[in-house]
Design brief:
The complex is a heterodimer of chains A (283) and B (315).
Chain A (H helix, E strand, L loop, with lengths): L1 H24 L6 H15 L5 H22 L5 H21 L1 H4 L14 H18 L2 H12 L1 H6 L4 H27 L9 H14 L5 H16 L7 H15 L3 H25 L1
Chain B lengths: L17 H29 L6 H19 L5 H30 L3 H26 L9 H4 L3 E4 L2 E4 H23 L1 H11 L1 H6 L4 H27 L6 H16 L4 H21 L4 H16 L14
Antiparallel strand pairs in B: 1-2
Helix pairs in contact in B: 1-6, 1-9, 1-10, 1-11, 2-3, 2-4, 2-9, 2-10, 3-4, 3-9, 6-7, 10-11, 10-12, 11-12
The chains are: A mainly alpha (283), B mainly alpha (315).
């Protein structure tokens, strides 16, 4: 039971990472939820015939190819247009999962999927993903995506290949989403069409919004909170989604840089106060 | 030539006669238009891509259902439509005053504001759906027979119900009135100024906050009202009915060009006809794929929309 909770938390972390990558670089691609679905179905359908690592890699590879195609197709889009097109993509994947009965099992979904996942394996994938994201966002790379988010013309004038960087971030996000998706049916043994789509976009954004979008630490913190929330919120029971929705709104309104931002702000305030106090004492 | 009492004319999907399909497509187009107009206006004028719009549609219909359950009386559909529109307007205004407005005031850059509003609207949109899921006593709810019933007219070989006529007429009249308001009146001109540049508008004495709230209220009223009309036409209310509609509205908005009401009219009917005929004559699974394919095609080939944007739209 606790193992399942741990693996769920790790898969949440991967979804969070997928959204953190795009939020930090300011590329409004919310397609990670759609790729989660593609990854999940690819893995669930192939794992009875293949060894699970091959299934996972296959799911990730298929999604990566599709992510490159999608990013190339939508390459000209910016801002809200890109957000809208990628959400449309997410909704399309859900409706395909519902409609393509012969492959996906339709509304009933797939069940009896071998539950091959172990905490070690999910943790290993999460660690690899962390290293990749941390490397992409380290020093120079981090500056690149920051300037891409805040001022794209400036980035271009500084010699950053913004077009290629945007595609790379969108693809990385899609691949991370697909990885989270591929692992999930291996954890639970079942997969339904309603699992991707809007609720997943909310989940991913919630994790990043709670933790903070500055680095991989934000999604880690956010995933921890979101995994623990159902336990803490047991008393609200089926009203949980109301709390989730409200939480996202409140965080965006009052703590746009997440818990990490709050902690940092608190530290600065403390330091300033102690500095003030010492000043008072010296005078 | 009318036969009162029957429900839902021309809803049979197996019906292969072309006239029936045309009537269905017109009705669907009217609903898409009512729904998408609010979305395209709030995006075009306020830079708000409101993903809670679908939830507002659903909640307009659902709150009417609750009202009927609680009061135990049967009210006429026009009264109920006004009620649903009022609920939609209320939700949408609250969203603007409590969430979108403050976010936009605090955000450092325009891109930052757009993204924050997008995320907040996704979160806010979750709430009505969750409330409806918890209060619903069935997966799909029906309006009482007396409310949903409508007279069916025989126009030559075509059958059309009063409700279907009402939907199409209402959609065209309301969008026409909105278009007139925005293009011909002084408050409409003020709205166009906001779309162009909110800061300058504020300095010119345009009451940006009040007009933004008004625009969101109109957008919400259209959404709530169209939700009930859709529910009455299909005689079904489902907590997740807004999600699929949102995809359709995206297609309408993109087809017509963001912020363009005239474009939304064309987009809504093009999409409705394409869908209706593809579903009737090719395959039922195509319904959602068509909307997405249209979005992709337009965005890639003509990002400015099928008809290019009118001058008052954002520069």
């Amino acid at each position: 039971m606790n193992e399942t909770l741990l693996m769920t938390g790790l898969s949440y972390y991967l979804i969070g990472l997928a959204f953190q990558v795009v939020l930090r670089s300011g590329v409004f691609s919310l397609a990670a939820a759609g790729f989660w679905g593609i990854g999940a179905y690819t893995c669930a359908l192939t794992v009875p015939h293949l060894a699970w690592p091959i299934s996972v890699l296959l799911a990730v590879a298929v999604s990566a190819v599709l992510a490159v195609v999608l990013a190339a197709t939508l390459g000209r889009l910016r801002g809200l247009y890109l957000g809208m097109a990628t959400i449309a993509f997410d909704l399309l994947i859900v409706s395909l999962a519902f409609g393509w009965d012969s492959l996906t099992g339709g509304a009933l979904g797939l069940y009896g999927i071998p539950r091959e996942a172990s905490p070690l394996m999910v943790g290993a994938f999460a660690a690899v993903a962390t290293v990749v994201v941390a490397m992409v966002q380290s020093r120079a790379g981090g500056r690149f995506v920051d300037v891409l988010r805040t001022d794209e013309p400036l980035a271009r004038s500084l010699g950053v290949e913004t077009g290629r960087l945007r595609v790379a971030m969108a693809v990385l996000s899609g691949v991370l989403g697909a990885l989270a998706g591929a692992l999930t049916p291996l954890i639970f043994g079942v997969l339904g069409p309603e699992e991707s789509g809007f609720p997943l976009v909310v989940l991913g954004l919630m994790i990043v919004v709670i933790g903070g979008s500055g680095s991989w630490v934000g999604p880690a913190l956010g995933a921890l909170v979101v995994t623990m929330l159902p336990e803490l919120l047991r008393f609200v029971e089926e009203w949980r989604d109301v709390v989730y929705g409200a939480l996202v709104v409140v965080m965006v309104l009052f703590a746009p840089s997440g818990l990490i931002g709050l902690v940092k702000r608190g530290q600065t305030a403390l330091r300033r106060r102690s500095a003030d106090e010492s000043e008072v004492m010296t005078t | 030539m009318s036969s009162p009492g029957a429900t839902g004319a021309n809803n049979s999907r197996t019906g292969r006669d072309v006239l029936g399909q045309i009537v269905n497509a017109l009705t669907l187009g009217g609903i898409y238009l009512l729904f998408a107009t609010g979305l395209t206006l709030s995006w075009g004028v306020l830079d708000v891509l409101n993903l809670a719009h679908g939830s507002i549609v659903m909640f307009g219909a659902f709150s009417t259902y609750l009202l009927l359950q609680a009061s135990g009386t049967v009210l006429a559909l026009p009264v109920l439509t006004l009620f649903a529109a009022a609920v939609g307007a209320l939700l949408s205004t609250l969203l603007q005053l409590l969430v979108f407005g403050p976010i936009r005031r605090r955000a450092a850059t325009r891109g930052q504001a757009e993204l924050s509003v997008l995320i907040a609207s996704i979160g806010a949109g979750l709430i009505p759906v969750a409330v409806a899921l918890n209060l619903a006593d069935a997966e799909v709810m029906n309006l009482p027979r007396e409310t949903a019933s409508t007279a069916i007219h025989q126009l030559g070989p075509a059958r059309i119900s009063t409700l279907q006529i009402a939907i199409v007429v209402l959609a065209l009249v309301l969008t026409g009135a909105l278009a007139w308001w925005i293009s011909r009146t002084s408050s409409g001109r003020a709205l166009r100024t906001i779309a162009f540049d909110p800061t300058t508008a504020e300095q010119l004495g345009v009451p940006v906050g009040r007009l933004s709230a008004l625009l969101m209220a109109i957008s919400g009223a259209l959404a709530g009202g169209s939700g009930l009309l859709l529910a009455a036409n299909a005689n079904a209310i489902a907590p997740h009915m807004g999600d699929g509609l949102l995809l359709k509205a995206f297609a309408v908005v993109v087809l017509g060009g963001v912020g363009s009401i005239g474009g939304a009219v064309i987009g809504a009917f093009v999409l409705a006809f394409a869908e209706t005929f593809a579903v009737a004559y090719v395959a039922g699974e195509l319904r959602d794929v068509i909307a997405f394919a249209l979005i992709l095609l337009v965005l890639v080939l003509r990002p400015q929309g099928l008809i290019s944007r009118v001058s008052w739209q954002r520069a």
